[in-house]
């Protein structure tokens, strides 16, 4: 639990420093355009990297798509996300679809 | 602090609070499911205060990823906040350094969106900005406490069904973050790299590597597409 506590505090401090240093520097210097462009691509890249293994290799093993409830549930969930652009609706729909498919 | 500024700050905060409470509750439920103790779930919201990154943090903690990889990956996700500070810096340039460092704590995606949306007509005063920031922060922490309490009371079957809340939330965040085709390229390359790492049992590195390589690939592709589009417009005009 000490390990978890240190990780949480490290992430908290790091996140705060990212916000504070950039705000402090941003008041004085202008960052190069390519760095700003690159930062805009980090979020979709990381989210893709989180989701890929979660959906395609649950528990580190390849499953047939028809036996993989997470992958099946992600289809309607993705559609709802795209249509509504709403976090809550998407999560609610995803959980219900997953519950129905996994049973 | 004057009353008008505080009232304006509360008005700015209202729509964010409406969104934060249910999302923070979802976080509380998921953190408990990932077998974190009640106080740890709340500490994460108190210390980190960054929606998507907190969900990633608990899922990485639950998966037994090495500590350095957990910290590195979550900070990579939060690196986009540097963009917000950089963009808002000029707005706060008349503030003292201490006031800026206090305002920086509450600079989440949503607070940034609200602040940058109105900066051109009225540069925010410290009182208004802090009221906005810390009202949102309070709602985030309170929502987490409520969610963690629900998570503790939830029966096993419900906890199993709720385990899909995390991928569902990531899917929603992904759809919201893909504004251009090049963003989709970034996420597909990121997914491919992470899948390879998991396949070869180096899953701990997968997300950080996928994020770095995916973002770079997206930027390169986006840049070349932009140049092609630019050349086409010039050809048509000429």
Task: Give structural attributes.
heterodimer, A: mainly alpha, 2 domains, B: mainly alpha, 12 helices, flat
Task: Describe what this molecule looks like in 3D.
The complex is a heterodimer of chains A (103) and B (238). Chain A has helices at 2-26, 33-56, 69-84, 87-102. With 103 residues, chain A is mostly helical. Chain A has two domains: 1-30; 31-102, no CATH class. In chain A, 42% of the residues are buried. The mean pLDDT of chain A is 87. With 238 residues, chain B is mainly α. Chain B folds into two domains: 3-177, no CATH class; 180-238. Chain B is flat and about 60 Å long. The mean pLDDT of chain B is 86. Chains A and B meet through α1, α2, α3 and α4 of A and α1, α2, α3, α4 and α5 of B.
Structure in a nutshell:
The complex is a heterodimer of chains A (103) and B (238). Helices cover 79% and strands 0% of the residues of chain A.
Indicate the structural class of chain B: mainly alpha
Order of helices and strands of chain A: HHHH
Annotation, overall tally of beta strands of chain A: 0
Point out poorly predicted stretches of chain B: none
Query: How many distinct helices of chain B?
Result: 12
Largest sheet of chain A: none
Shape of chain B: flat
Q: Work out the radius of gyration of chain B.
A: 20 Å
Q: What average pLDDT do the residues of chain A reach?
A: 87
Could you outline the blueprint of secondary structure elements for this entry?
The complex is a heterodimer of chains A (103) and B (238).
Chain A: H1 2-26, H2 33-56, H3 69-84, H4 87-102
Helix pairs in contact in A: 3-4
Chain B: H1 3-33, H2 38-47, H3 51-62, H4 67-78, H5 81-88, H6 97-105, H7 109-118, H8 126-153, H9 156-162, H10 165-177, H11 181-199, H12 203-237
